[in-house]
Design brief:
Order of helices and strands: HHHHHHHHHHH
Structural class: mainly alpha
Radius of gyration: 23 Å
Largest sheet: none
Number of strands: 0
Strand content: under 5%
Low-confidence stretches: none
Shape: globular
Length: 287
């Protein structure tokens, strides 16, 4: 005759503390995403690449500020600085975007995230906000160095400082546009695979493989084709929007009268990437 079952009291108790809800979870994921982007709270190996990129971008800004202080000339203005550094930031996004989303997919923890109260849109919003912030800081921080260099060496007093500020703020908005485009494409590609190496390669390919198309279109005999050539690549697309929105931006882009077309495509590209991301994670959440 089997012995009767015995229930042992091992001290489990119900949680009676505060339930912070979705907003707190969103905030925690956002902060964690920014920390992960720069390797904070992780090993020294995880910090090497992001801080190397930040150091290079900041060093370029310091050199430009020093040249301006000595000669009175700025080789690259705030807008041109973002364009010049965008090629380096491609690789930053290629490393960080898979770190933010591919690792969770590979570990199979998404069903745990999407249990209540967190929703797929909350998870995605936190990841997008974290990467946008990380990329924007990567551009805006060195731009602030340029601003400080110009403000402290100006010979026209406060009017010169205000002029510098008037140049800086549109450049920060332009850097935000870069961050949105980088984030949308980077996270969308990274969300398709749990293997970070494949995700990183795919992100770099999207940006680099579209650039030669612009070169081919820009040598066509049609002037309209030359003006619209920048639409073929995310890199030149953003430069075209900057050329249109910020008068005298001198981004090197020739867009003719098609500035609104560039702006519409940029907005459509960002919105499409975010909607596809949302559809992707809603599908994952329903599994």
């Amino acid at each position: 005759m089997p012995e009767p079952s015995v229930i042992h009291d091992i001290g489990y108790q119900r949680y009676t503390g505060p339930r912070l809800g979705r907003a707190a979870v969103f905030g925690a994921l956002y902060v964690h995403g920014i920390r992960a982007a720069y390797g904070l709270g992780r090993s020294a190996k995880a910090k090497i690449f992001p801080w190397l990129v930040f150091g290079i971008v900041a060093l370029v800004a310091v050199i430009l500020a020093a040249v301006r202080a000595q000669t009175g000339l700025l080789p690259l203005n705030y807008i041109q600085f973002s364009d010049a550094m965008s090629w380096l930031i491609i690789f930053f996004v290629a490393i960080v975007a898979p770190e933010l989303v591919s690792r969770d997919m590979k570990a199979g923890v998404l069903p745990l995230y999407f249990s209540r109260p967190l929703r797929s849109a909350d998870y995605l919003g936190a990841k997008v906000a974290a990467l946008v912030t990380a990329v924007w800081v990567l551009l805006a921080g060195p731009q602030l160095i340029l601003f400080l260099g110009g403000a402290f060496t100006t010979k026209t007093g406060m009017s010169g400082v205000w002029n510098e500020l008037g140049d800086l703020l549109p450049a920060w908005a332009y850097s935000l546009l870069w961050a949105l485009v980088f984030t949308g494409i980077g996270l969308l590609v990274a969300s398709l695979t749990g293997k970070r190496a494949f995700a990183a390669g795919g992100i770099v390919a999207v940006f680099l493989m579209t650039t030669p198309v612009v070169g081919v279109l820009s040598i066509l005999p049609s002037e309209t084709a030359q003006d619209l050539a920048g639409l073929a690549s995310p890199m030149t697309l953003v430069s075209g929007v900057g050329q249109w929105l910020i008068g005298g931006a001198n981004t090197g882009m020739i867009i003719g009268e098609f500035g609104p077309v560039y702006a519409i495509e940029a907005a459509t590209l960002i919105a499409t990437c975010l909607l596809l991301l949302l559809a992707r994670y809603r599908k994952v959440a329903s599994l």
